[in-house]
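Task 17 of the worksheet. Students: predict the tertiary structure of the chain below and write it out as structure tokens. Keep your answer in the requested format; marks are given for formatting as well as content.
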Amino acid sequence: MKHEKQLLTFPEAILFDWDNTLVSSFEIIKKSMNAALSYFDKPVWSDAEIRQYTQLSAKDGLPVIFGDHWPKALDIFSECYQNNVANMLTALPGALSLLQAGKQANIPMAVISNKRSKFLHHEIKQFGWESFFQVIIGSGDLAEDKPSPLPVYHVLEQMGLEAGPAIWFVGDAPVDWHCAEASGCLPIPIGEGVVEAKNYAQFVANYLELEKILLKR
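Model answer:
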């Protein structure tokens, strides 16, 4: 279903997802999830299945897949992920330049991720990007994770702003776009990993496109 086009006004704030939005973590997530699946003698997942079934936070998504064994699955996933994060996690092309442009334009920015908060903060610190974000929210910081609009409302309250189409929410997955829509903000799908992204009029393929849009305002 095509979504109605919304006018891109200069953003009052930009909210970002983290995984596969600002950083390329798909291969680590795939490796780690398949390690957990293999441990429980479950078939490993294809790329499409990884994209589809790893959008939710661990506490919301893993019980659906592993039932009562989900804490053990999380341990296996986390161990594999942490063993590889230093070598495999990279910034997406153009992400740093976009963040620098946003900071130069005095646009408040935040991260809203379904990654567990302690790991999210560690990774942002690993890249030295803490100064770009006024607020950082990960799974466990609030009672609900995306696609609930609660994280957006919390972040905007911290920023002294209200939800609306002037608040951009940049994300690579439906869970981000649905969260944006539920809160009344403007979803901006980025990347070509999910076919449905192109149903949104605000879809951008990469950060070069998004920065051009931002600098035109």
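Marker's comment: Residues 26-88 form one domain. The CA atoms of residues 15 and 169 lie 5 Å apart.
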